[in-house]
Amino acid sequence: MAKRRLSEQQVQRIRASRDAKVQRATQAAGACEDAPSGDEKMGLVVGHYGSFVEIEPLPITQPRCIYPCHFRASLGSQLTAGDRVVYRSGTSGPGVVEAIMDRHSLLARPDTRGMLRPVAANVDFIVLVIAASPTPSTALIDRYLVAAELQGIEVRLLLNKIDLATPNERAALQEMLAVYPTIGYTILECSAHTGEGMAALQQALEASISIFVGQSGVGKSSLVNALLPDANARVGEISSASQLGRHTTTNSRLFHFRAGGSIIDSPGIREFGLWHLQADQIVEGFREFLPFLGQCRFSDCQHRKEPGCALREAIAEGKINPARLESYFRLREKTQAP
Ligand SMILES: Nc1nc2c(ncn2[C@@H]2O[C@H](COP(=O)(O)OP(=O)(O)OP(=O)(O)O)[C@@H](O)[C@H]2O)c(=O)[nH]1
Ligand SMILES: [Mg+2]
Ligand SMILES: [Zn+2]
Q1: Ligand 1 in contact with 134 (CB < 6 A)?
Q2: What is the spatial distance between Cα 56 and Cα 84, in angstroms, rounded to a whole number?
Q3: Which ligand is nearest to the CA of 298?
Q4: Which residues in the chain come in under a pLDDT of 70?
Q5: What is d(CA 146, CA 272) in angstroms, rounded to the nearest whole number?
Q6: CA-to-CA distance for 286 and 225, rounded, in angstroms?
Q7: Which residue among 55, 82, 201, 330 has the highest number of C-beta atoms inside a 10 angstrom radius?
Q8: Residue 248 CA to ligand 2 centre (angstroms)
Q9: CB of 253 sitting under 6 A from ligand 1
Q10: How far is the CA of 135 from the centre of ligand 1 (A)?
Q11: Ligand nearest to the CA of 238
Q12: pTM for the model
């Protein structure tokens, strides 16, 4: 479907109208009890539930107050947890979201029909949660890392459920993950159940907006509950047959730390679809390849057996881990039409 293009004049008009709403809302911003219903106010999207969103007035208050809001049809599919919006609260029922503020980042992923859907807005860090069980694979980790790199959002790795690993299993997991700190990804280890590593995690998350992403059953909601005992995020069982989670969390939802900063819990997914990307985009998601891209002798180098391949030379010089190039090939094969 062709995208509808707006004229420069239309864009200006939309911006001017939005800016006026933002200005009025900023003037009216205050505690939820004080602000008269019906005025335009600034709010934060806490969660999107299909036909309505939950909005928290800005600035945030303690205890939190959260309102259901409808939205203009044109905004429905764009709104997501973490969005800052202008809204009007209803006098006796749900309010309405009027406009979305510009975002500094947007995490989106393709749905089953290939349409890119927003997962969270304005996040500073993606925390890719993996667990000692279900056992992670480098293919899965690299898939998420590529998606995050291409969205320009910094990623951290978090290995949860370390209570389930024997010392040998833990050493094997650490060996599998050893490449990531060498290419700039931080790894934390923790257990939402025993509390090990949770203080360091809390410290790493405070003062910024992060989102937990990862397979169903790795413990994202359990981590939210361990970090924020009032959160009450629903936790699911692992299927004893598949050792996988059962997709307990169905919508992204935002929570705040008392000391500042927020965490967004997101629904687990089997795969972070990348097939909407071209091969030359995927290769750019392998961050340590970047200095060598465009340096191969042949401009259409596939980095397999061609002479003068800069990526292969970098491997020979120990600058790139060969497993990551293999991972790139696997991802490419899975995501590309021939
Ligand atoms: N042993 C152990 N079990 C954990 C830990 N963290 C979570 N679990 C268990 O793992 C299962 C899945 O946890 P959830 O928090 O629902 O996982 P999730 O990642 O939110 O799953 P989805 O919402 O389906 O994406 C539950 O049975 C938790 O009790 C941990 O640190 N150690
Ligand atoms: Mg969950
Ligand atoms: Zn090459």
Answers
A1: no
A2: 10
A3: 3
A4: 1-7, 10-11, 14-15, 17-37, 238-246, 270-276, 335-338
A5: 10
A6: 33
A7: 55
A8: 5
A9: no
A10: 13
A11: 1
A12: 0.86
Q: Rounded to an integer, what distance in angstroms lies between the CA atom of residue 327 and that of residue 276?
A: 18
For residue 216, what are the contacts with CB-CB under 8 A and spacing of at least 6? 236, 244, 245, 246, 247, 248, 267, 268, 269, 270
Q: Which two tokens stand for residue 156?
A: 């951290």
**Is residue 249 within 6 Å of ligand 1 at its C-beta?**
yes
Taking alpha carbons only, the member of 274, 282, 273, 272 closest to residue 303 is 282
Q: Is the minimum distance from the CB of 250 to ligand 1 under 6 angstroms? A: no
Q: Which ligand is nearest to the CA of 295?
A: 3
With a 6 A CB cut-off, is 256 part of the ligand 1 pocket? no
CA-wise closest residue to 74 among 10, 8, 137: 10
Q: Which amino acid is at 2?
A: A
Residue type at position 257: F
Q: pLDDT tens for residues 109-154? A: 877 777 778 899 999 999 999 999 888 889 889 988 998 898 889 9
Give the number of the atom of ligand 1 that is nearest the alpha carbon of residue 235.
Answer: 16
Evaluate: CB of 235 within 6 angstroms of ligand 1.
yes
Q: Which domains does the chain have, with CATH numbers?
A: 29-100 (2.40.50.140), 106-265 (3.40.50.300), 279-334 (1.10.40.50)
